[in-house]
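Glutamate dehydrogenase, Dactylosporangium maewongense. Tokens?
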Amino acid sequence: MSVQDKLDSIFTAVVHRNPGESEFHQAVREVLDSVAPALGKHPEYAQAKIIERICEPERQIIFRVPWEDDRGEVHINRGFRVEFNSALGPYKGGLRFHPSVYLGIVKFLGFEQLFKNALTGMPIGGGKGGSDFDPKGRSDREVMRFCQSFMTELYRHIGEYTDVPAGDIGVGGREIGYLFGQYKRITNRYESGVLTGKGLVYGGAQVRREATGYGAVFFAEEMLRAAGDGIEGKRVVVSGSGNVAIYAIEKVHQLGGLVVACSDSSGYVRDDKGIDVAVLKEVKEVRRERIEQYVRHRPGATFTPGGGLWRDVPCAVAIPSATQNEIDADDAAALVAGGCVAVVEGANMPTTPAAVRVFAEAGVRFAPGKAANAGGVAASALEMQQNASRDSWTFEYSEQRLHGIMRDIHARCYATAEEYGMPGNYVAGANIDGFRMVAEAMLAHGLI
Ligand SMILES: NC(=O)C1=CN([C@@H]2O[C@H](COP(=O)(O)OP(=O)(O)OC[C@H]3O[C@@H](n4cnc5c(N)ncnc54)[C@H](O)[C@@H]3O)[C@@H](O)[C@H]2O)C=CC1
Ligand SMILES: O=C(O)CCC(=O)C(=O)O
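Tokens:
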């Protein structure tokens, strides 16, 4: 059987074993499509069934989360933690609170995470979790009660050396605080390294909040520089207006680019003078309002309801930072027609496979999320490092470390793509390099 036939049959088995989990299938297919050359060079991987083992999470936990709203009504949500792979270190990855969350989403995110974490070069395995709870429109006290109930089950599965959750969509500093408080209360242990993304006053690290967005822009800068270009003077569109998007916009502006539009799930705002980050933070981080409110403070800015951002606003650089599969083939064609030269995934898997093909055919440089958005989890590993040594670094030093890590990730992806005869193919470079690290560690550990 050829390597490709073998990979096809593994994929068929994954689909069969995980019915209805389309996002997970998509994430697996993308990696399997890249790793054939590495398997050709390393027959020992196939012999030890590394791919088959990588596609099967080490552990999947599903639990009931009952909680009471402010009117005394009882709600039941479902909680998840998928501990995907611990070959490189304790499971590490965020928690997502969003009504769309189900096992297939958590598994796709956990699968992506294990290769991403490998690329950071830090000793962290891959995991992901979350709930179908919707924090939108909930009071702080409701969110607190939900987080306490969620942690009342989750605490027995996590720990500094076991599994270290963090934030993702719908889980930011507020939620991490409530989760940490409940963990501390139940276990009677001040175990700082059990969660990352903590507040600065109780064990959080400088630059963790900014890290995913800043990191994506550092990666963009490296990718453009490798092509003899740069971000300065470029018109940029960033989707989303949450943690990743806000700090991506901030860093683009610091590097001399201009972000002219961003969005949330209700629509997008366009501001040709450049998105005002202070206003955006006030609307989104402080008031937790819909993006439409941005235009109240910015004469000349416009709000458009719905999802037309990628088709309507031309740009040289696109940084999708909202959610999975937000750029389809038609969006990609519109971006190409509008002069887009680079796409950098701030979100996890925001570009559909058909859209990735459109970019490849048009020669658009494309940075996959598992490389480009790895700055967040890398900064989480730096937070764990500071917690373990009871230390706290400055903002400047932490940002320098992040910058160095993103440069290294870029260099590894670039070099691996060259080594395998696919220069400029960052998808192949990231998948092969991340896969090789996990595979080598799994081989070393024996059949477990
Ligand atoms: N927070 C982190 O450190 C990291 C996050 N990511 C990924 O980045 C993406 C964004 O995450 P965060 O900024 O942390 O979440 P967030 O909850 O802070 O912000 C998410 C943003 O995306 C928007 N959004 C969500 N669903 C949408 C939809 N269907 N259509 C349009 N907009 C939508 C929301 O309105 C919000 O503006 C996710 O894909 C996440 O997995 C990746 C690496 C690390
Ligand atoms: O910081 C972390 O542990 C997780 C970040 C995350 O969820 C991601 O990289 O998608």
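Residues 92-94, 113, 116, 166, 168, 196, 348, 373, 376-377, 380 surround 2-oxoglutaric acid (ligand 2) (CB under 6 Å).
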